[in-house]
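User: Hey, quick favor. My workstation is busy. Could you predict this chain's structure for me?
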Amino acid sequence: MRVEGLQDAVPQEATRGMDLDLRDRYDTDVYETTTTADTAELTSSTHAVVERLLGRLLRGLLLDGRYLPYTAEVLRSAMR
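Assistant: No problem, here it is.
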């Protein structure tokens, strides 16, 4: 996974009343990571694969407490 153009990015949540400081901006331009997973893990432990791919990025954006651990319930509550 590769995401470019992150330098000085601020999560949208920082502008929606979450307690995030707008001065806490992402400090690198590119986030890149890889992982491997077999079909069984993709179907039975999707959360683990997603966390391996996005965990560091979410921590860097100070969003890990909102979206991790990655579960359907966490995603539903984040969308409210």
